[in-house]
Design a protein that fits this description.
7-stranded mixed beta sheet; binds coenzyme A; single chain; Aminopeptidase; 26% helix; alpha+beta; 151 residues
């Protein structure tokens, strides 16, 4: 089941993200960041446990970002990643975002959903504010992809 996250899910979301972050597959998130951005998050639930998450974050008047996509190893390959992306894209449409971007180490996964690779310079300066606090800055290998959902 895919649903919006609640406060009770935050610790499971953090455990999921930070387990992959330890393997250098995605960026770690602090509890503070997760609580403050709780309303961005969708979760996938199986047997009352959080096994997946993704966040849709509004960046600017026509731009949103999909962040922190993760599906637990045991639950991968069952379509949950796709359902989480679909939930974020539907929400973006409802909110009126026209362009969705991702910064990812898994470009091929996002290309399946119509995202196209773009140069980092195509994205507004504002989004790099978060990167300055990242331990990987400025040698980040993340790839930027963009999907236009409305003109
Ligand atoms: C990437 C990830 C979210 C995929 O989740 P998932 O639930 O296994 O994905 P799904 O089962 O919904 O797969 C949907 C489609 O994407 C494909 N796919 C899955 N992982 C892929 C990858 N790494 N690269 C390319 N395609 C991939 C599947 O084969 C499937 O294709 P199909 O519809 O043609 O059958 C999951 O592997 C994960 O959490 N990885 C670790 C964290 C991570 O890398 N997050 C990415 C954000 S930086």
């Amino acid at each position: 089941m895919i649903r919006k996250a609640g406060i009770k899910d935050i610790k499971q979301i953090q455990a999921l993200i930070n387990a992959f972050a330890k393997q250098d597959l995605m960026l770690a998130r602090s509890l503070n960041e997760l609580y403050e951005n709780l309303r961005d998050f969708w979760v996938a639930e199986e047997n009352h446990k959080v096994v997946g998450c993704a966040a849709l974050h509004i960046s600017w008047d026509d731009l949103a970002e999909i962040k922190s996509l993760a599906v637990a190893k045991k639950s991968q390959g069952k379509g949950l990643g796709k359902e989480l992306i679909d939930a974020c894209l539907s929400e973006a449409e409802v909110l009126g975002a026209k362009k969705i971007f991702v910064l990812t180490y898994k470009p091929d996964f996002f290309k399946k959903f119509g995202f196209k690779r773009v140069g980092h310079a195509r994205l507004p300066h504002k989004i790099w504010a978060e990167c300055i606090n990242c331990c990987k800055f400025p040698d980040c290998q993340e790839i930027a992809l963009l999907k236009i959902i409305a003109k």
